[in-house]
Each structure stands twice: as C-alpha cells, then as structure tokens.
Design a protein that fits this description.
There is one protein chain. It contains eight helices and eight strands, in the order H-H-H-H-H-E-E-E-E-E-E-H-E-E-H-H. The protein is α+β, with helices and mostly antiparallel strands. It has a domain of 104 residues: Alpha-Beta Plaits (2-Layer Sandwich). The strands form two sheets. It has a five-stranded antiparallel β-sheet. Strand 1 and strand 2 form a beta hairpin. Helix 6 packs across helix 7. The protein starts with a helix and ends with a helix.
Length: 281
C-alpha cells in the first residue's frame, strides 16, 4: 500500500516517466549501434549519418513526450488547442521555422544529398567538412578551425564535393611575357610525371583503367587579375585521396616552375618596382 500510494504522487509519477523515457531512448540508440556494428548494409559514412540523425530524433521525441505528459496534469491539452484558434495560430507561427528546419533536414538526409564527413560549400561562402548532422542544423568544420552551424532552412545553395570521386584541378598563373610554347612543354612533362608517380590516386573503372587521367588543359583563363594566364592540370581521383593528390600535383607544378625558370605572374606594383630597379642599375 505504501508503494502504491507513493506512485500516485505527481512528483514520483513525473520522475518515473522521465526515467522510463531516458531508458527507452538509451535502448533504442544502443540497439541501432549494435545493429550497424553487426551488419554492413550501409557504408561507414551513411552509418554515421544515420546514427547521428537517430540520436537527435530520439532525444527530441523523448523531450516532447515528457513535456506533453507533464503539461497534461495541469491543462486539458485537447481543449486548449482545439478551443483556442488564436493560441493554435500563435503556436504554429512560433514553430514554423523549426518545423521547416525539420522537413528540409529530413529531405536532405533521405535524398542522400549530404552525409557525415562530406566536404561541402554552403551558400557559396562557407566551406568545410560536415562534423555533425542533426534534424535542425548542420555543423561544418572550416579550414580556419571554426565550427560553423547553419539551420537547414538557411541553406539556399549546397555544393557537395564528396560523391565517390573528386576532380583535382591545380594551376600555375604565368606572366604575360612567358612564352606559351615553352610553358606547354613544361606542363606536358608535369602531366606525364603525375600519371607515372601518382596513378594510384586516380579513379578507375571495373577494368582498372583510369576514368580520367591527369591531363594538361592548356590555357584555361586569360588575363587573371590583370597579371597573366592560367595553365592548369586536372585529374579524376578517388574521394579519399583528393587532398593528398592535390598536394602532390601542386608540388610537381612548383618544382617544374622552379627548374625551368618559368615566369610566374606577379602583382603590377611588384613588377613596377622591379622595372624601376633594373632602370636604375
């Protein structure tokens, strides 16, 4: 009788429900983690994305159920929301941005537009690696180390660089006075060197043939910032090797420019100073 009477008390009821909700959420998360640990249905990134999303969903649902339970002891929620049009409208207005975030977040996730670890560019001015995916927002780690949080409803443009392949595109901007024929020969040598030394990074088809080898794209842009012309090399590489492949290609371009005395583009102010020094001497 003592225990039955004690459990009729409101504070004890609330604490009991809270414990049950926490335990249920924990068991659901634990079950999901065990399921993915024992199976290989999804790749690692998709698994991590799903686990983060499930964690956020269970947390939100647990809080919603808890607050509904607590409020139901003080208010008649059914009459409160159905009987007051003004209150229901105000409540919907307050939650419209949150609901929009939830809907857009689920759209991004179920359409597989993003996943944990992707390199993304958001709205053209924020770029980095996705570190956390929730049902309301994304968190991306930028190159400067800052962790940037953005709600799904604020995303107007999303560029995803991780879809099993990435294109390395590196270039040299050479001076107007550089002979293009000489530059072409050097760049073609760099192309050959990259294919010989870094072919392991290239994306290959089922027959082991590179889908797109490193290639010299000749002059890809004229009059770059009024300094010179852009000579570029590109190649289609595996997603995991993108960063390393880019470093290797940049090194080969730098060493080739040094060994062959290519005339790099310089700012107009620096060129004017150099011209003044040569005239004085």
């Amino acid at each position: 009788m003592f225990f039955s009477g004690m459990f009729q008390q409101l504070p004890i009821k609330i604490i009991t429900v809270a414990v049950l909700i926490i335990l249920t959420v924990y068991l659901i998360r634990k079950s999901i983690n065990l399921f993915f640990a024992k199976t290989n249905i999804l790749d690692e990134k998709r698994e991590e994305t799903f686990k983060q999303f499930a964690s956020q969903v269970t947390k939100v649902l647990g809080l919603v159920f808890f607050f509904i339970y607590v409020l139901s002891h003080f208010f008649n929620l059914a009459k409160l929301f159905t009987g007051s049009v003004v209150l229901a409208g105000a409540f919907a207005l307050i939650l419209q941005h949150i609901i929009r975030d939830y809907i857009m977040g689920m759209t991004y996730l179920f359409e597989r537009q993003i996943q944990h670890g992707d390199y993304v560019i958001i709205n053209g001015n924020r770029q980095g690696k996705i570190e956390e995916i929730s049902i309301r927002h994304l968190k991306i780690r930028q190159y400067d180390g800052y962790l940037y949080t953005i709600s799904y409803s604020s995303i107007t443009e999303l560029q995803n660089g991780n879809r099993r392949m990435r294109r390395v595109n590196e270039s040299l901007v050479l001076n107007y006075m550089q002979n293009p024929d000489d530059a072409f020969k050097v760049m073609e040598e760099v192309e050959q060197t990259c294919n010989e030394k870094y072919g392991e990074y290239l994306l290959k088809d089922e027959n082991g043939v590179p889908v797109e080898s490193f290639k010299f794209n000749q002059i890809t842009e004229l009059n770059v910032d009024f300094r010179g012309h852009r000579y570029s090399i590109s190649g289609l590489v595996k997603e995991a090797d993108f960063t390393e492949a880019g470093k290797k290609v940049r090194y080969e371009l730098a060493i080739a420019a040094y060994k062959n005395d290519l005339m790099m583009a310089e700012s107009g102010e620096l060129e004017a100073k150099m011209a003044g020094v040569s005239q004085v001497s």
